[in-house]
């Protein structure tokens, strides 16, 4: 389905990532750091194909300004801020009037991110494998606490999605599609299970016993939704580059097959918001 109707209600994954910053002040919001120089060496390595002189990008990293989340629940907002800055928008209302208008409190779902994109008239596409309320999530520890109140709000958004101009497709997404999307200068916000998210550059900082990052022990108990912004790839090494709003590192890197596990883990519904650099919605 390219758009939901009243009979096609979906629940997308909820994100409430682990708190990594002891200080919950917006002043710690480090949005807008330009790291073009830092990653100049990683930018757009090109291989010229033999036939016709066409160009195939084998390695791409888009220059997405870093935004670090300030709380335990706002990785979706931080990712949205990164998207806005990448596309030349001012993200300063994201944590204030934009958040207020969502009326989601501290419970941000993937469709809320799509609503934000639409609010800024940004061309987007939300893909998910689940249309219709997945009642089994009501028993998931991650979702349980706010499931009932969130269910009504999120369902209403899906009912209204078409008229709101939110583009939704019910389907799984392949890695090839992700690469093609990124190669065209676009980026995408993925819902992943934190427990399976890897960074081959940062994982040395992880706790050896529970494989979580230094954080609350509760983060190790079952599914833990987290949003990241995928902004690059290395085809030869089969790696994806992404921005993790929970870290103050500029860029993270995962093997593609491992990222597939994280984004397809039960609880994510394989949610992804594709964001397009060109054109408005
Ligand atoms: Zn990393």
From TrEMBL:
Gene3D superfamilies: Cysteine proteinases (3.90.70.10). It comes from the Eukaryota. Pfam families: Guanylate_cyc_2 (PF09778). InterPro entries: GUCD1. PANTHER family: GUANYLYL CYCLASE DOMAIN CONTAINING PROTEIN 1 GUCD1 (PTHR31400), PROTEIN GUCD1 (PTHR31400:SF1). This is Guanylyl cyclase. It comes from Potamilus streckersoni.
